[in-house]
Amino acid sequence: EAVAGMAVVSRIFPVVFSVVNGLAGSTGPIVGQNFGADKFDRVKQAYYTSLVFLGLYVCLAAIVLFTLRSYIGDAFCLQGKSRDILYLFSGPLSIAAFFYGSIFVSNIGYPLRPVWISWARATLGTAPFAAVCSGIWGAEGVSIGAVIGGAVFALVAAVVTLRCIATTTRPDTVVMEARKALIPEDTLDRRRSWHG
Fold first, then answer.
1. CA angle 95, 97, 98 (to 5 degrees)
2. Using CA atoms, how far apart are residues 152 and 117, in angstroms rounded to an integer?
3. pLDDT of res. 56
4. Does the structure show a pLDDT above 80 at 142?
5. How far is CA 157 from CA 103, 108, 166, 186, in A?
């Protein structure tokens, strides 16, 4: 029954939270363009705006899932443990989408960072937490542990990203000096003229 419940969840969640994946793919180019143009105020604004939009969408989707959870369970003829797992994911665990999405909007200046953090979340942030929580809550504990681990690594991603923003927004940073050393001055002048 638990496997049946997870099968239904794995089919519903990618559809309901497809916007989260779309946001992760669309934020990177916006951040990258402004980062390359030295518009660090816009980089910061893009990051915070993405998090706000992500939070609002996940909350709205979670409310819709919670409201329709009984109808979804009836549509898939779920009973017992499978229905419990659906209800769990259609309630508090639906906020996991925020944690997953916040990792992928943290690619400010370093596109490989969210990849490594996501890999760490899927390994270090899943197995240990799932093992501990499954001993406490049983089958539901596996999912609860994965969400807790995702929250931990989302917090790590947020801290690293905010430190990156604080570093790159200071005009006298080593980052700016390194970029000037790598990019010819006439190229920088042309970029500034393009972006005003």
1. 75
2. 11
3. 93
4. yes
5. 6, 11, 14, 35
- CA dihedral (125, 159, 13, 144) positive or negative: positive
Asked which of 34-48, 123-137, 160-174 is least confident by mean pLDDT, the reply is 160-174
3-class DSSP assignment, residue 32: helix
CA distance 90 to 68: 8
* Helices of type H across 76-169: 81-89, 96-104, 113-123, 127-137, 139-168
Residue 150 to residue 170: CA distance in whole angstroms: 31
Nearest one of 134, 152, 151, 135 to 143, comparing CA atoms: 134
Which tokens sit at 59?
């909350």
Please name the residue that has the structure tokens 């009836």: 74
Give the pLDDT confidence of 111-125 residue by residue, as tens digits.
677 778 888 888 888
Cβ(168)–Cβ(175) under 8 Å? yes
Would you say residue 146 has pLDDT above 80? Answer: yes
98: CB partners within 8 A, 6+ apart:
20, 54, 55, 58, 154
Closest to 2 (Cα-Cα) out of 126, 127, 93, 138: 138
Task: Quote the distance between the C-alpha of residue 101 and its chain's center.
Answer: 2
Q: How confident is the model at residue 171 (pLDDT cuts 50, 70, 90)?
A: very low
